[in-house]
Amino acid sequence: MSAKRIVVVSSGLSTPSSTRQLADRLTSDAVDVLRERGVEAEVRTVELRDLAHDITNHLLTGFAPPKLQEVLDELATADGLIAVTPIFSTSYAGLFKSFIDVIDPQSLTDLPVLIGATGGTPRHSLAIDYAIRPLFTYLHAIPVTTGVFAATGDWGGGGDGVRSLPERIFRGAREFAELVERTYRSERVNDPFSLDRPMGHLLGGLAGE
Predict the structure, then answer these.
(1) Strand 91-92 relative to strand 112-119: parallel, antiparallel, unpaired?
(2) Mean pLDDT of successive 10-residue segments in the chain (209 residues)?
(3) Domain NADPH-dependent FMN reductase-like, which positions (predicted)?
(4) 148 near 22, Cβ under 8 Å?
(5) Which domains are present in the chain?
(6) Do 15 and 50 contact (CB within 8 A), yes or no?
(7) Is 51 helix (H, G, I), strand (E, B) or coil?
């Protein structure tokens, strides 16, 4: 079995960033779970702040600069996406949304997604389910059931009163790894004989529509 390809996107703006820290923790647990199942993973981690100018240029011109295009190409052949954003004004960061806007929507079809978010207060955790999850669902991705939110106080180990941050990270990573293990997106995309339309359309003479 070929290695699974995982793209990790962190849209934190500061250095160091709790958003990147959460992304790294989610990635580490997901890779560990896959390895325990006998599956190797290739990970590409992307800091969106390093691509901010390229993303803006793409929005303005419709063309992606080379570094951004490389990330978009990797995402199109990925077996899984770990996406982590800070929460500003009760929703995802503008940079995060701008990145989603320059992705070819078809690139995310059937893509397992593990959602992470960071913020100052646990109240912002609701943004995962009312803002971020619907965004990926609309794009036909497959967000895992457990989204992981890390408030400032969570890093001290107290958790949310129900489940500690490490427990939530592991639960989300395990669900994500289970989906990644079963997906064959990268093999399908790289197959020169794969079809970009359902066979029924081709047999029915609708290939040109």
Answers:
(1) unpaired
(2) 92 90 97 96 96 97 96 96 92 94 93 94 85 95 96 69 82 97 71 40 37
(3) 5-155
(4) yes
(5) 4-203 (3.40.50.360)
(6) no
(7) helix
How far lies 85's CA from each of 18, 150, 162, 201, in Å? 10, 11, 23, 39
| Distance, CA of 193 to CA of 35 (rounded, Å) | 30
* CA neighbours closer than 13 Å in the CB half-sphere of residue 68: 23
Q: What is the pairing mode between strands 148-151 and 91-92?
A: unpaired
In the chain, the amino acid numbered 144 is: V
Distance (Å, whole) CA 105 – CA 9: 16
**What is residue 88's predicted lDDT score, i.e. its pLDDT?**
87
Assigned token pair, 174: 């395990």
- Would you say 105 and 73 are in contact if contact means Cβ atoms under 8 Å apart? no
Cβ–Cβ < 8 Å for 164, 157: yes
Query: If you search the block for the tokens 């995802």, which residue do you land on?
Result: 92
What is the residue type of 139?
Answer: L
- Amino acid present at 63: F
Q: Quick one: pLDDT at residue 154?
A: 85
At 175, list the tokens.
């669900």
The pLDDT assigned to 189 comes to 52
Q: How far is CA 75 from the centre of its chain?
A: 9
Measured CA to CA, the distance from residue 181 to residue 202 in angstroms comes to 30
